Each structure stands twice: as structure tokens, then as C-alpha cells.
Amino acid sequence: MKKICIWGLPCRFIWHKIQGMEWKLIATDLTGAERLAQELSCPPLVSRLLLNRGLADAETAKSFLSPSLSRLTAPFDMKDMDRAVARILKAIRGREQVAVFGDYDADGLTATAVLILFLRPFLPGILEYIPHRVREGYGLSPAGLEALRQQQVQLIITVDCGVSNHEAIARARELGMEVIVTDHHEVPRKGVPEAVAVVNPKQEGCPFPFKGLAGVGVAYNLVIALRQVLDREGLLPGGKPNLRTYLDLVTLGTLADMSPLREENRIYVAEGLKVLQETERPAIRALKEVSGINLQDPVSATDVSFRLAPRLNALGRLKEAREGVELLVTSETGTARALAETMDQENRRRQELEQAMIEEIEIRIASDPDLYQRKCLVLSSAAWSRGLLGLVASRLVERWFRPVFLFGLENGLAHGSGRSIGGFHLVQGLEKMEDRLIRFGGHAAAAGATLKADLLPGFARDLEELVERTVPPEAFIPTLNIEAEVDFPALVNDVLPHLPRLAPFGEGNPEPVLVTRRVRVKSCRVVGKGHLRLKVQNKGITLDGIGFNLGDLPVEEGDWVDLAYTPDFEKKGPNGYLQLRIKDLRI
């Protein structure tokens, strides 16, 4: 097979990185898997996959396999939920001017839309405010507070932000505005801000058992609680609104945020994918159309994560994210279509800019041996779009398997976004350098930071030293976790009928990676932009496979290989069997 060149770099350079991947077979209690298989009447391989996800007993596994809205935790189990609902009820009765202050990503936009759609019948003049990523940055901004003050807002409800905005919330009080915070981000070391209520399952003393909600998940719990109290107070003359219809938006935000698909999130998404298929919401129908999703076809988690969500996110990365809320709340088909087409155009532009950034950075790394040896990449440029920094950092972590922080330089400041590997908690690392940071925040795996541009070399040096000192060497080896070995006949006949029940897949419930040994390559070719298309055979069964960005793997027709892959039960090959998504292979 002809070797190709990706990103303008020699193939041997790219192959060096791929060769470093280590296959690790996950250790499983085979006796326990056998017992669970008998209790669930499923193949042992399926029970093994359940055990690998921490589902060791039959009842827990059954709940996982059959997610139901009836199993949701009561929203009032969340700390301060009663205070938030009481304050909103007061605003409804007093006909106050209320604003929802959201974030500019898909999670924040969907969370904003959920609250606007629910509260608009009770607060017809409710406003939304989405800050501009570059001009204002993340969270409650001075410009945003001033704009809301001029519109005589009395109550601000934040979604997907606010828990780290102590100074801004204090300023809002000075301006005569009260604030309810709903957020899901890590609480800073100095604690929660002095707001009317702080609704965040991650705060100390919150009894809500599941801590992995997305911002839209917290907002959705607020809506459930509000409906309950409004009904009790006799303020729902038209009957209870059906909150299941909001799950298309909850699913979109949860998957876009890469929140763990366990417990509440798994229930939301499992049910929400059904709503996404059947919904008449103009926004979702328009997004599906511009994304190439047939309106009658089932919608998968992959469709949401890689087709719908990127288009919604593109606005906040390159333009005005507030148009995303306008799309999600509109009832006009024409308006929805026009806005969705704008998002599609912006998403195409985002892809082009992202690819250009990746190519530039890969060339930098290839030409600088020092960068190649570093345990943490900290790079900057005045030409980079701030809206793309986190996205490109994620791609680089996937390729280089080390923490990456990218900074855009502007007016003497460095605005950065970082992504990390499993062995290094980004926010905890930033806390050790907070004396030089103007602001920072985020999660273990993703964070943002702003500092003076002239302090960036010292920041890079100290972060490199911290990573090298605290992260063990094995953490830098990309690992492909293999769940089990299986032959094609068992895969097709035994596993495939049960595999869809493990979906939806995503963060916290990864797609299973399996290995089949002694696979014969019947044909191979490179398609698209460096993707590997294979036809492979094992024990009499031939399957089709696609390896995205693996077109430079040194495999030829007739080779015998060990194949690591994810069975894609949603995609069928020409022979009617499932398609394999190839992760790696060994000759």
C-alpha cells in the first residue's frame, strides 16, 4: 500500500507516535463475569463489559441496561435548590425583570435555552445574556453586568458559570441585582460566592449523589424543581408542562460537554436520543438537516457529539454565541433554518482554521527537538483564534499524549486553554501558580488561564517542571485499553445482539475496544484524508473496517494482523454485517 504524508510531515515521523501505543488487557473477574452472565442471561463477554464499568451485581447492571426517568434523583436533594426556587417564585409573583446569564459553548447555550423556554410563560420579559468569548471571556463579565443593569434586571440566574465569579457577584449586588448561581464546574479553594443560592452538586455539603452533571443538567434539575413548586402553588393553570420534551436540549449539552454518561446523565441521554429523533423543535430539525442527518433516522450519541454539537459550538468559537440561544428557542422554521445554515458555514470555517493551527504546531514540534522532548507543551501565537485553543489542545493531547496549553497573545495578555492526560490535574497545577495568573478555572482535564504575556516563559518552565516532577513516566505512554479478545463468529452471533443495550457510549461509558487475533487482510486502501479502509477475515467471516487517520499504518493486502477495534453496530458494511472502527493493528 502506498504510504502517504499527513500534515506535510514525513510518514516515519507520524508512525513513530503511533508505534508507542501500548495495548493493555483490562483485568476482569472471569468467575464474576460468568455468574453475572447467568443472572442476566447474556454472553459472558457482555457481562465482562459490564464488570469493566463497575457494574458488579445484577440489579445495578439491569438499571444500567434499562435507564428510566423514574430513577432520577429528586432535584431538591441538591444544596440550595429550595432557596433558588423560592427566589424565582418571588420574581414570578413580583413580575421582576429576570435574566439568564449563560456560557458561550453548547452546554451553556442549551442550559440557557432550557430556562428561557420554561420561564418565558411566567416571565414574558425574561432576557438572556451570552458573553462574547474574546471581548468578555468566561463567566459573569463587567460588560454583561452593566448591560443587564441598564435593562433594569433585578435577578440574574447563571447557567454553566458563576461558581468562581466572587468579585462579579459582589459587583452585581452593588448594582442592585441579586444572583442565583447554577453551575457544575469545580468550586475554587476559597469556596462558593455570596449569592442568593448556589446550585452546584460539586460544592461542599451537597447531598446530591451524582456529581457529574453538565451545566444543562443542573439547569434541568432547577426546571423540574420549579415545576413541582409552581404546580403546588396553583400557578400552572394550563397543566404541567411535559419536561421530557426538553431532553433533546439536555442531551445536546451533556454530550457536547463530554460529561460522564452514568447515572442521571445516562438516563437523560438514553431518553433524550429518542426525543431528538421525534422532536418537532425547529432548531433541532434544522441542525439535523444541515448536518446531513435524515429526519426519520435514529440519532446516535456520535451524531450529536460530532455533527450537531460542533455546529452549535462554532458560533461561540468564531462569532456571536447568542445566536445559538436564538436558534434553540425560536418557534419559526425559517428563522431556525437560516441560523442553522450560518452555524454550518461557521463550522466549516472552524475546521479550516483548526487544521491550519494543527499543521503549524506539528511543524514547530517536528523542527524543534526540545519541544518534542517536553513533558508539557506550552505554545503561543498572536495569530491564533482564542475560540479554537481548547479544541486544538485536545487534538494535540490525542496525538502527543502529554498536557498541552495553548495561548493567544493580545494587548500584552496571554489567554490560554489547556487539556491534560489522566495523570495530571490541570486546575490543581494552576493553583500552585495562581500568584502569577490573572484568572483561571476549569476541570482536571480542561482549564483556562489568563496571565501577562511576559510571564508566559516562566509559566511554561514551571508547569513543565511540575508535570515532570509529579507525573509518573508510564502516564505518558498512550494506552489502548482492551476489554476482551473475541473471534468474529462470536462477535457477530453472540455479542452484537446485546451490544446496543450498553449504549449510549461516551465519557464514563466508553465504546468497548476488542481484539481479534490472526485476522487476514483481504483488501486495504487509503480513503479521504488519510483514513484506512480494510476488508478483514477471521474464521470464515469477513467484515469491513475503517481506521480514521490511520492511513499511514504499514499494512498490505494478505497480511495477518492482530486487530484492535470498536464494533460499530450502527454502521453496516456492504455484506450486511457491522462495520469495525479500527483503533490499531499489529502485524
What would you note in describing this structure?
- The chain has three domains: 11-27 and 480-586, OB fold (Dihydrolipoamide Acetyltransferase, E2P) (Beta Barrel); 73-343, Alpha-Beta Complex (inorganic pyrophosphatase (n-terminal core)); 368-476, Roll (Diaminopimelate Epimerase, Chain A, domain 1).
- The chain is of the alpha/beta class and 587 residues long.
- It has a five-stranded parallel beta sheet with strand order 3-2-4-5-6, with helices on both faces. A five-stranded mixed beta sheet has the order 7-8-9-11-10. It has a five-stranded mixed barrel with strand order 14-15-16-18-17.
- It is globular, with a radius of gyration of 25 Å.
- Mean pLDDT is 90; it is low at 1-19.
- The protein contains 20 helices and 18 strands.
- It has helices at 11-19, 30-40, 44-52, 58-65, 81-93, 106-119, 142-150, 166-174, 215-232, 247-256, 263-278, 282-290, 301-318, 322-329, 333-367, 369-373, 389-400, 426-431, 456-470, 488-495, and strands at residues 22-25, 98-101, 127-129, 155-159, 178-182, 197-199, 377-381, 404-410, 413-419, 437-442, 446-452, 479-482, 484-485, 514-527, 531-538, 541-547, 560-572, 578-586.
